[in-house]
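Re-run with default settings, no changes from the original entry. Doing this only to confirm the output is reproducible before filing.
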Amino acid sequence: MNFIKNFIAEEDGVTAIEYALIAALVAAALVAGIGLFTTGLKDAFGAIGTKLSGITI
C-alpha cells in the first residue's frame, strides 16, 4: 500500500515530461522561426540583386 501512495505522490516523472514538452515546443518554434527568417533573407537578397543588376558602370 505504501508503494502505491509513494508512486502517486512521486512527481519526478511528471517534471521530466513537462521539461520534454517545453523542449519540444522550443524546438518547434526555432524550426518555424528559422524557416521564416531564411525566406525573408532570400527575398531581401533577391531584391538587392535585382536593383544592382540594373546599375551600369
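The longest helix spans residues 12-53. Residues 24-54 form one domain.
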